[in-house]
Each structure stands twice: as structure tokens, then as C-alpha cells.
Amino acid sequence: MVGGWAIAVHGGAGVDPALPVERQEEARRVLVRCLTAGAAALRAGALALDVVEMVVRELETDPVFNSGRGSALTRKGTVEMEASIMDGRGRRCGAVSGISTVKNPVSLARLVMERSPHSYLAFDGAEDFARKQGVEMVDNSYFITEENLGMLKLAKAANSIMFDYRVPLTGADSCRASAGLVADVGGELQMMNGLPISIYAPETVGCVVVDRAGRCAAATSTGGLMNKMNGRIGDSPLIGSGTYACDACAVSCTGEGEAIIRSTLARDVAALMEYKGLGLQEAVDYAVKERLDEGKAGLIAVGRNGEVAMGFNTVGMFRGCATEEGLMEVAIW
Amino acid sequence: MVGWAIAVHGGAGVDPSLPAERQEAARRVLSRCLALGASALRAGRAAVDVVEMVVRDLETDPVFNSGRGSALTRDGTVEMEASIMDGRGRRCGAVSGLTTVKNPVSLARLVMDRSPHSYLAFDGAEEFARQQGVEVVDNSYFVTDENVSMLKLAKEANSILYDYRVPIPETCSAGAGAMQMNGLPISIYAPETVGCAVVDANGHCASATSTGGLMNKMCGRIGDSPLIGAGTYACGACAVSCTGEGEAIIRSTLARDVAAVMEYKGMRLQEAVDWAIKERLDEGKAGLIAVSGDGEVAFGFNTVGMFRGCATEQGLMEVAIW
Q1: Which residue, A195, A290, A326, B23, is most buried by CB atoms nearer than 10 A?
Q2: What chain A residue is nearest to B267 in terms of C-alpha separation?
């Protein structure tokens, strides 16, 4: 059946193979809940843009994933969040970075798109705008979880953010021993963004939707990289990198921000469809395989004719999708 | 014939009634920067070094809207941003929200070379700047009297409209059928950026873009200039720097698209530039400069004018506004 609505969500690429079963179950539950909410809205005729915002708000509010509450912490132990949203119709977009008191960053990104003359607001200016718009604001401590405080300590101990994160940590074994890490697959310590996978918090949540009318939209939201420098901006708020939507498709990415940025990963999926005539899954596979070089990332995508596609070169990506035809699946590996 | 080539720009969207002395001042600066870049390229310098050097010069000169001479925020302050990309390996660095760093493009380079990240902004970027020991100055250094007056005019013109595509009632003498960009009459609008794109003697491409942003912008507003794929892009095939309506450049991923149509549709450089300007901008107004790994140079813009110039190893050297 050509056409029909479809929705995909993700909770980050790069998963600790040793993630406890209860954590996996918890993640699955959140993804199922979000898909169900999105699917119900789509069945009722909701617009793609509204659905992606609603679903990402849900993911931000839940502390399980790294966005909104439950965000990864900066090196100073605070939370700085960022998000972007894009409406395939007209390619309108909005983004925010450096958010520290706004409860739902994705909604602020939407307000930037719809109620400001700009596309992207950050830090104090964004917070100012938020206050003027009357959005819900909370103390920065609201976003901080005990678990992430623990993770931050481990990250600092692992001497994590290295100058060139592609260079394996020296003394990785002693690090592993002292930090109690068991994150290896086939004897090799899995690393992403300079962090061992057991500490690395998959960076983002995202949602892509094509509605009944064939309109696509995407949104991505994150607390960013564990132990990041304050002021660091990743791929999630960058149009063309972490998020992209046009007439043909909508894409949301997750993983190593630097790699996603220089590959303009989300835009490239659409560009491959537009310029090389590739189909959705083909374009997703090509982008993940050819554009990332040694970078590790994943993405979800939907196409205007109701297709869903996913791709990742990481160990695992929290993800799920549902379509009008009745498909509903959630996966981690 | 392959050889080095360099292109520079000082912004797209020029007031047709710009006084002759201003046009001359702009041409002089562009010529000087081209000469600087060309001599470095003749001496075998790498593309990424040359773009940084040339953009530093453009930032330091108050004529264009970057570094000193930047457009002002609605609060009358300066917030600058920049990005740089090395086509070799597609490495990149970007900064936003700078208020005291004398040369934003150099800080962007340091983010690329000396931090684990790609993009730093506001307080965090300023902190990094201090750790790196770059030259910092008071925010007032960047503010020129001319821009203080422009800001007044912009506020009067009720400039940044909610939907900048809606023409404003004509309240200022911008001429009949007042041309608008970003909600401002063209006589007030400060072209947003400076940029440089270079291919060196080894065929490596690089580009950099720097700006004070939109006159009367909201504090915290980020435009296209620091965004990789939007205002700046470089890869093996080419290097691009854009200027104009930020929102339009962002949603067209303009710089990336020039490279993408070369890579995915096999277009040559000028064809790709023309295609991007014509097909990707919709009603948006913008311009761009580009070089290819084969030593070609190309420009494109759908605005009235773009301050630009180029030089090639074959001896071409030209500067233009219209």
C-alpha cells in the first residue's frame, strides 16, 4: 500500500552490550509508549509536525533517555540541552541550544520556528525568549538524575573526552579495571566519543513522521555528550546534520556529533534520494556506510509514501517504528 | 589546468545607491585580501591556513560585517560567529556568541584543532578562548559609529518582522519598491558575512565564513555562518561560503548542496552553484562563492549585488560588486 502514515523514534545509537535487562526493558517500554501515542494521533489525522513535537516532548519528560530530564551532564555537572524541529512542508525549521531551564526544549525550538524571526536561538537569548513566550521553566536541577551524576564521575575518571577520540585510551585495560567496565565485544573495548560504551550516554532522542497527507517532519533533542565542555553544540540542533525534513523524507540522527556534522548526515539521506534517485532504505544505508568514515552513528527516516527506514553502524540503537498497515516494532540490537 | 584559486566575499545584498566612496573602500579591502591570499598560495601555503588568514584580515577591517564593524544586536552589542572547514578529511570548527574574541575565525580553527568538539558557543566559547590565550578585547572594540546609527534606523524601520517576507510599509527613504532582505530595507540591511574559499596548489579545498550577524537581531540568534553545510562547507570536490538570508541558507543547506549536486549528479562547479541558487532558495535571497579541487572558481547570487573577488594561478584577478 502506497501512502499511509508512519512513525519512527530513537533513543540514541551506541548501546552498552552489557546493559542490564531491566534497563533494556525500561527503554523498550518508553519507546512503545511513545509509538503508541504517536500512532493514535496519526490515526486521528494529526499533522506530522505536531506528532513529532508531542513524541519528543514525551521522550524529554521521561528520564530514561538523554534529553530533557535525564540529560547527560556537562563537565561542570550542569545540564545544557539542545533540540531542533523541521517541517518538510516548506522546509521550515527551528532550533535551540544551551537550554538550562526550559522543560521541553523541542517545544521551544518549535516556537523559534513559528514565533520568532529567526531559526536558531541559543543560551541566554534562548532562555530570554522562552520567558517571553511563557513556556514552562524549571530549575536546572530538575533535569539532573542520580544516575547521570554517577556516570559523570566515571567519565571524568576514564579521562574521557580526549583530544582525538578516535585514538584508543592508553591504559584502557587499567581504566576498565578501575572503573569496573565490562563493555567489550570480542575482547575489544567499545568506545564512542572518547568514552567507553558503558559510560557513554547515547546522545539523543528523535522522532520522524509522515502523516496521512504525506507530509514529513522530524525532531531531535538531547542533553549532549557526557562531560562535554560547557557551550559545546553537537549535531542535534543543526539542520542538515542531526535533523532534516523535506517533501521526500524526514530524518533524525544520533551518535558521534562531530561525524554527523561533517557528513551532514540527515541532509545527505534526502540528497541521495533527490539527486541520485535512491529509495529511502538505500539512501539510509549509503549515508551510514559512505559518509561517516570512522564515525559511529545511527539514524531513523520516513518517506512521503509511508516507508520507514533505519540504519546504524554502532553496536545497537534504541529504536522503534509503527505504520498504518499495523507494523509496530521496538528494537535495541 | 589545475592550480590554486581563491575567492572572497563581503556579503550578498547591496544597496544600489551605495555611495561611490563606500564601493571603492570595499573594492580596496577585497583586492588587498585577494593579494594576501594569492601570495600565500604562490608560496605553497595550505588552503585551510589561507582561508583563516584572509578571513582574519576581513574581520579586522571594519568595512564589512564581521569582527570589527559587525552588525549590532538589538541591545547594541556585538555577538559574532564563524566557521571553518578543511576539505581534507572534512574537519570543521565553529563558534557562536563571541563578544570579546578579536578574530572569531581563528577561535573556530582552534575548536577544530585543539578541542574534542566541533562547535562551541557563548560563555563556553569565551572560556575556551581564554584557556587558549587568544587575543581578547572589550566588546566596544567591535562597535562602529556607523553601525550604531544603522541600528537606530533598523529599529525605526520596525525591522525584524515576524514574517520577514511580508513587506513593511514604506517608512524610510529606501527608494521606490524598497528592496528588502531579512525584513530590512536594503539601505539599512548590513550584508551578513565575509567568507573565503580556497583550493591550494595541492588541490585541497577549504572555506571559512565569519559574521556579526543580522542587524537588530535578538541576542542569542545564530545564523547560517557557523553552521556546517549551511554557510560553510568543504570536501574533496569543492569549498563553499554563503551569505544572505540566514534562514533561507539554513533550510536549503546551501553550501552542502553545491557539493552534493557535484558528487551525486556529476555537475561541474559553476553548474552546481547556479543550480543551488536557482533551485534551493525558493523566495530566499542569498549568494555564495566556491572553488573546486580542479582549480575552478564560481559565484552565484540572486540578490542585488554581492561584494566579491577572485584570483587564480593563471593570473585572473577580479573584484566586483554588481
Answers
A1: A195
A2: A275
